[in-house]
Each structure stands twice: as structure tokens, then as C-alpha cells.
Amino acid sequence: MYRGSKVAAVIAAAGKGERVGGPVPKQYLDMGGEPMLVKTVRCFSKAAEVDEIFIVTNAEYTDRCRRMLEDHGVCKVSAVVPGGRERQDSVYNALMAVAKECPDAEYVLIHDGARPFVTGRVITDVLESVCSHGAAVACVPMKDSLRVADGESSRAVDRSRYFAVQTPQGFRTDVILGAYEAAFAKGFYGTDDAVLVERTGHDVAVVTGDYANIKVTTREDMPMEIRTGTGFDVHAFAEGRKLVLGGVEIPWDRGLDGHSDADVLVHALMDALLGAAALGDIGLHFPDTDERYRGISSLSLLRQVKALISEKGYSVVNADITVMAQRPKIRPHIEAMRDNIAEALEIDRDRINIKGTTTERLGFVGREEGIAAEAVCSLCR
Fold first, then answer.
1. In this predicted structure, what is the pLDDT of residue 83?
2. 52-57 and 77-82 as β-strands: parallel, antiparallel, unpaired?
3. Distance CA 27, CA 13 (A)
4. What is the C-alpha to C-alpha distance for residues 90 and 110, in angstroms, rounded to an integer?
């Protein structure tokens, strides 16, 4: 409740988000451990002033949206409504749900599902202004100098009179419903909700928004997430096997024992990549009880790991791998190893570093009983 009046919030999340790209609409992409839409809705569920939340999303995602919000423990959600052809159609569907499910709501806040950084201060300030004016919109003053073009020439514009429009936009329920009905009666589609209201002759107040309250429109708007993973693997020497490291067959009298080609270097790297993406380890994905992987090239498995991390939206920033072997020396083969790994991961070779070391004849490596490898990698999303 706000000043004794009931408040409903409409979250508009029915867009396809094609400019961001990805396997799902942008509002369902992971952002810091949870979907972007969850972050957005949580901002309003935490606001004491907001009583009920209505979400409008892509028709084929309504069930998924409900389950997602339940799984993340988001409260106050009264309905998930299928969207329409345009944003205006979608928001109207949600407003009809508000009128049906929450008929005593005196105020409605309408917010973009792709604005997950809205603050409680902005929500409260918009509501405060709506109580006084009946319609209000969050805006921020323009920072850049502005010019208006006139053919091939242009002239400067006084930026002090111009603002960038944000959401939430807030309205008395009767004002916004009347504005939508008037717009549809004339076949008019506006760029936002405030445009529809001002067409009815109702003034729209400007409320100071927040520059951090951006709308995620392109991939560049997504906050960068960096993750680090480590991997370690050991294989014993075995007679009658080829020695393969980094996808390179190294001339030696023994190879490494294992279910696959036992490429200890690549195995350590795969574990680092899977760990950074919180996807378990190579034993989970490629168990040594599965005959499909008997004798398989570890580079082939590395390509599958690359596909797994790509599905989660991650790209490889770099990898640093240390091979611990008393013998043979790996230095003559390092460049070929880097080429193989870079090709498998589809990145530049200068992102891959490989180095060899001994253990000064200490331990199983020093006794030439086997080879160990350690890898560290960074992923970005």
C-alpha cells in the first residue's frame, strides 16, 4: 500500500530481444546467477509500496516464467499474462489482468523487464509524483550535446530541456486505462505509455531517474561476468601406448594409461573450463565406463566442453597450463599444442600458454612413474 492506496506493477517482458542474441529472449538470460527478469521482478517484490505484480511475457514462455519465479522464490506475482503483437498490445493485456484480478488498485507502475537495475528510490519517487499528478515518468537529463539535422546541415539544441525516458512510468489506474482505450480507438501506437496519456490531454510529470537504470538492448549492455576455473590431472605411464599431450603425439617409449587417449594436459584444461562454468568435471560428462570414449582423442572431448560452456553463454578469455614431467621434454612441442587447443576452443593461440616443469626428481613425477598437469582458465559472459 502507498498512502493507503493499493499499487499494482506491470512488468513488460514480451519482447524477443533479438539484438542481444542468445538461445532465449534476453529477459531470460542469466545475469549474475539468476535470469534478468527475476532480478527485475525482485526489485518490485521488495518494494513495500507495491502490492501485486503482473508480468506479461511471450505466449510460449508463460509456463516457464511461472516456474522460474517460483524456483527463485519471487513473491507478490499475481499473474503471468501472454503478450501481444506489439509492446502496447502486451501491456494492455496486463492492464486487463490488473482490472480483473486487482480491481481496487488505484495506481499502476509499468516497467520494462529488461531494466533490472531500477532502485527502490526511483520506484518510490515515481509513486510520490503519481499521487500528486496522476501520471509520472522516470527520466534522466541528457549528458551529451545535442544537434538536430536539417538536410545536410544541423544546429545545436539546448540539452537542458531534454531528458532520456526510463521506466517505471506510473499512472492512476483510470488514467492509463482511458489512455489505452483512446489510443486503440484511433489505431494509434505510441513509443511508451506516457505518450498515450499525454495524447488524452493529461500532463505527465518528470521524476529524476537513475543513470544506472539502463535498458538492456544489445549484448554490450549486459554486465561482464568473469569466472576462473582450475583443473588438475594425473596419469601413470603404461607400456604399449602412445604418449599424447596437447593433441601432439610425442615420440617416447611409453604412453599414459587411461580410458581415452589419456592426454593429461587436455584433461586438466577441460576440468578447469567445466569448473569455471560450474558444470562439474570430465568424469561427469565423459565417464570411463562409457565405451563411446574408449581411445577417443581428448581434443574431441575438448570441443564438446567448448560447446557446453558456449551454451551457458561463456567465452574463453585465456588458459595457462603447466605440465609436470621429468621426461620427456615438452618444449619442442609446445607451439603445436597451442595450435591444437586454440583450434578446438575457437580462440586465438595467444590466449593459450603452456609450460613444462620437472619436480627435481621428487615424487612419482620425479621417479618417472607418470605425468601431471595443472590448468587455470578464465571465462567471460
1. 96
2. parallel
3. 7
4. 11
Contact 28, 62 (CB under 8 A): no
Q: Quick: pLDDT tens for 162-197.
A: 999 999 999 999 999 999 999 999 999 999 999 999
The label of the residue with cell 482511458 reads 178
Amino acid, single-letter form, for residue 346 = E
This prediction's pTM: 0.70
Question: Which residue shows C-alpha cell 578469455?
Answer: 317
* Residues paired with 59 in a beta bridge: none
DSSP strands (E only) in the chain: 6-13, 30-31, 34-35, 52-57, 77-82, 105-112, 135-141, 146-150, 153-157, 163-172, 205-208, 226-238, 243-245, 248-250, 255-256, 315-324, 352-357, 370-380
Predicted confidence at residue 225, as pLDDT, reads 84
Percent of residues in the chain assigned helix, strand, coil, to nearest 5: 35, 30, 35
Whole-angstrom distance, CA of residue 181 vs CA of residue 177: 6
Bin 165: left if φ > 0, else alpha if -120 < ψ < 50, else beta. beta
CA distances from 86 to 90, 178, 189 (A): 6, 19, 9
Going 19 to 21 to 24 to 28, the CA torsion angle's sign is negative
